[in-house]
Structure formats: C-alpha cells, structure tokens
Amino acid sequence: MTLFLTESEVACLVSVAELVDALEQAFRDKAAGQAANVPRGRAALPSGTVLHVMSAAWAGPEVLGLKAYTTSREGGRFLVLLYDGRGRLLAVMQADTLGQRRTGAATGLATRYMARPDARTVAVIGTGWQAQTQLEAVCAVRPVEQAWVFSRTPERRERFAQQMGERLRLPVVAAASVEEAVAEADVVCTITTSREPVLLGRWLRDGVHVNAAGSNWAHRRELDAEAVARAGRVVVDDLPQARAECGDLIQAAAEGAFRWERAVELAEVVAGSAPGRTSPSEVTLFCSQGIALEDVVAAHLAYERAVQRGVGRRLDLGLDGG
Q1: What CATH number is given to the structural domain containing 214?
Q2: Residues 23, 171: one domain?
Q3: Same domain flag for 137 and 278
Q4: Closest to 288 in 3D by CA, of 98, 105, 76, 43
Q5: What is the count of structural domains for the chain?
Q6: Which of 125, 140, 194 is nearest to 170 (CA)?
Q7: In CATH, what number is assigned to the domain containing residue 73?
Q8: Based on the domain organization, do 175 and 66 belong to the same domain?
C-alpha cells in the first residue's frame, strides 16, 4: 500500500543538513547520467491560479517522482508523489516543508562547493518561510560566526533575527538596508518575491558567494545586471530550466551583461568537471530555480525514514504501492 505523510510528519523526518549530503550524491549521479530532471510546466487560469508540475528520476535508489502544486491568492498547496523502479506508488506526501528544506539544502550544497573555505559571515535578503532554511543551510556547511538579515518590514527582520539567532546560537543582526546587510558578508542569499533587483552588483565584496534562490519566473529578478556580470562563476541547478525561468540571468542576458555559455550546472561542479571558484577574490553566483530532482531526493529520504520509524498512514489506492 501507499504511504501518506503529512507536513508535520515530514518535518520530523528530514533535516536540512542531511539533505545537503543526499543532494550531493544525487547531483554527482546527474553528472554521470544517472539522474534525469524535467523542468517545471505551468497551466494558469484567468483568475491567476496556477498549477505547477515537475518530475525527475534518480537511478541510484531506483526512484521516480513528481511534485504538483497550485498557487493562488490563498497561497500554495504542495504534493509530492514518489514511485519505485517498477512504477509502484510508494508515497504521497504534503510537501511545503519538504520544498522549504530542499531549497535550503540546494543553497547549502552550492555554498559547500563555491564559497571560500574561510567564509564566516552571511547575509540573508528576505525573511519569509524559505529564508529560514537558507541561513540554516549555509551554517551547515561553513562555521558561520555572524549573520545579517534584511526585510523591508522592520518588525519582520527584527523577529527573524531574534528567532534564528536563538535557533542557530548565532549573532544575527537586523540590518537597516540591503547594502548594510551585505557589506561584510562572505555569503549572500536572496530569497524574495521581488520583481525588481534587490541586490546591486556595486554592493558586493570581492570573493563573495551569492545564492539567488527567490525567482523562478522569467519576468522576476533579484539581482541587477552588474551583480551577474561581476560573477566569475555562474552555476545553475538545471540549465534547461534556468533558460526558461531564471529571471536574473534571462534579463541580464537581454541587457548584454551575461552569455548563457558562461553558465554551468551544479552537477558539473559537484562531480569536479567544472570549478566552483577559481580564486579567493572571485565573485561566484548560484541561481537556484528549485528542480524536481531535489524534491525526489528529499521525498526518498523522508520515505525511507518513515518506513524505518513506522511513521505515516498506509492507503489502499489500488495502485500496488510498496
């Protein structure tokens, strides 16, 4: 029978730090042709409600899966379906928390390979649901000693700074501006819903690593063209998906500040066929769209843990689940 997992159950089964390691193996497999990713497709109603569907296969553990979710004025609703190598439906799980943690873990993996080894400071631009795991993931791969956070709403940035500082036992300062937040940062994470740039290239220090994780629409961007142009290394989680929806790179290319030939996939960096950085002073950029392979990896980990611990409900859907 098929296993069903709720948001709260998933939250107890999968941590960001564990997912960083799991994604590392999956991206290495992707470079070897042992994982396939199908970019996100979207169908929209005139009302603005959108259905998003994305899928992937991972040969290592012989699993396949898809994420389907809707976004509307009421928010988002997320589900992941996980299948085994024989096509049996192993699990259905609510996937908002799963998505939050896999997005953070992708940032953590990119930071592991692209940030300077001596990186000790981080700035997070954005204080929403996804921002929490951005900071958590960077702290999982570097011994962070200081963090800054910025949101346009003072109350939100103060609350985020207090809560995350207590959770991570780390000094987290609510900055008064983006420029102030990034001034001394070795790693910068942008995780906003902005349509216009929030991070300008002239604010970036030499040697900084930037994770741009907020935009997966061609008409939205978090970075200006100068920020993209300053990056000596530009890495994406999946090139076909980035070409379709990475607003940061699409718009920089349209302005003549970027050529797609410069972009490499994170899988190549993890496998060692492309460098994450070439010098301590180089600015590096990871543009994260959030891909289905990351969801399948996270769902597989959650499923394995759930079976081990007896978590979840078995459903007889007549689909010969595991």
Answers
A1: 3.40.50.720
A2: no
A3: yes
A4: 105
A5: 2
A6: 140
A7: 3.30.1780.10
A8: no
What pLDDT does 319 receive? Answer: 74
Q: What proportion of the chain, given as a percentage, has pLDDT over 70?
A: 99
The per-residue pLDDT for 31 is 98
The residue that leads in pLDDT, 267 or 317, is 267
283: containing domain: 115-291
Q: Note whether residue 25 is domain-resident.
A: yes
User: How many angstroms separate the CA atoms of 289 and 198, rounded?
Assistant: 17
Beta strand extents in 60-171 (DSSP E only): 63-72, 75-84, 89-94, 121-125, 146-150
Please name the helix (run of DSSP H) or strand (run of DSSP E) that holds residue 29, with its range, or none: helix 16-31
User: Each residue of 88-147: pLDDT tens digit?
Assistant: 999 999 999 999 999 999 999 999 999 999 999 999 999 998 999 999 999 999 999 999
212-250 burial code (b ≥16 CB/10 A, e <16): bbbbbbbebbbbbbbbbbbbebbbbbbbebbbbbbbbbb
- Within-domain flag for 231: yes
Residue 73 is classified by DSSP as: T
For the chain, the residue count is 322
CA distance 113 to 50: 34
Average pLDDT of the chain is 96
Same domain, 170 and 311: no
pLDDT confidence of residue 320: 62
Structure tokens at 7: 């948001």
Residue 108 domain flag: no
241-257: per-residue pLDDT in tens?
A: 999 999 999 999 999 99
Q: Is 175 part of a structural domain of the chain?
A: yes
Residues 286 and 253 reside in one and the same domain: yes
Strands 263-265 and 231-236: parallel
What is the mean pLDDT of the segment spanning 179-190?
98
Segment 208-228 mean pLDDT: 95
